[in-house]
Design goal:
14 helices; mainly alpha; 327 residues
């Protein structure tokens, strides 16, 4: 075995292990986890929060209030989506950022070693981008899946919660009653149950409410959390505030679905064109094999063919960037 083949095999093994760890670490779906696993997760979260609260209380009430205010300001102001945050939103918080970066490098190295056996320098350079593009796509897919699972029940949950508040229930009872009407597989229901479990285990109310949906990348969760916390601090008409928030969430959801439907044809058109090109290549190879083989054996033909592949890849990337948006 040549040194290059040995290096390719080693890098391939590392890439497979790292990618498998990223993909299979935790489920992406909104199905409820087993009761034992969910209970252990709750207890570990609650124990950490209670330990932090105990340390803050030993340092004095003024330090506790200052730390809470700083945490709230930081949570609202810090909107930069770092690698650590993206891994947390994708339910991969156990994976350290450096391991994710190493996985990107390993995947890029594998693609480079494979591509260099068949293609020239242009595609070899493009192959170095395969690791970041592939793993970022996997992470974004997991984040978007959890976002869609949460967003599917979120407007209904808010409207039910507003109705419960208008009947005279307090916010905690209203949260429990509103979550009861959701399916057991609902991600919103799991978050509410986790919040109630924190309260039962002695975590402060503000910390329990502030942890609602902390690992879901959704824009309106912070508004809901801040409305609840402020209503508990200073009072106010919480039902009217959440009613306006529910209407806003429904409008954004409708606009998001309309925008996705509008750009769906543009996304699908490029795959249709690629399918037509593939069929044409197969047909030409059947009726006139030299037309295809000479393209990859003649020096100038190889350059033209690889330039065409690079153009196709850039077109796919450009279309996805143009039609990728957040509402």
């Amino acid at each position: 075995m040549t040194p290059m083949a040995l290096l390719a095999a080693l890098a391939g093994g590392v890439a497979i292990v790292l990618v498998a760890a990223l993909v299979m670490r935790l489920p992406v779906t909104g199905r409820a986890a087993s009761p034992i696993a969910l209970r252990q997760q709750m207890r570990s979260i609650v124990a950490l929060q209670r330990e932090q609260a105990g340390i803050a209380e030993e340092q004095g009430p003024s330090v506790t209030e200052t730390a809470t205010e700083e945490l709230a300001i930081e949570k609202v102001a810090d909107n930069q989506l770092t690698i650590r945050k993206r891994l947390r939103y994708a339910q991969l918080s156990q994976v350290p950022p450096y391991a994710f970066s190493l996985a990107q490098i390993a995947v890029s190295l594998v693609f480079f070693l494979v591509v260099r056996q068949f293609f020239d320098a242009v595609l070899q350079m493009v192959s170095l981008l395969s690791g970041p593009l592939l793993l970022n796509w996997l992470i974004n897919r997991r984040i978007d899946k959890r976002f869609r699972d949460f967003d599917a029940d979120y407007p209904q949950f808010l409207l039910s919660f507003v109705g419960m508040l208008k009947t005279g229930l307090n916010p905690i009872q209203g949260l429990q009653s509103a979550a009861t009407g959701l399916e057991d597989t609902s991600l919103v229901k799991r978050e509410v149950e986790l919040m109630i479990e924190r309260l039962r285990m002695g975590v402060s109310e503000e910390r329990s409410i502030g942890s609602f949906g902390e690992d879901i990348y959704h824009q309106e969760i912070e508004l809901f959390v801040q409305a609840l916390i402020l209503s508990r601090r200073v009072g106010g008409n919480l039902s009217e505030t959440l009613d306006r928030l529910a209407r806003q969430v429904r409008r954004r959801q409708y606009f998001r679905q309309s925008a996705n439907a509008a750009v769906g044809m543009q996304r699908g058109s490029i795959w249709f064109i690629l399918g037509v090109l593939g069929l044409l290549e197969g047909y030409l190879y059947t009726v006139w094999p030299e037309c295809i083989t000479i393209t990859w054996t003649h020096p100038q033909g190889r350059m033209v063919g690889q330039a065409g592949i690079v153009g196709i890849l850039l077109g796919i990337f450009w279309v996805r960037q143009v039609t990728k948006f957040k509402v």
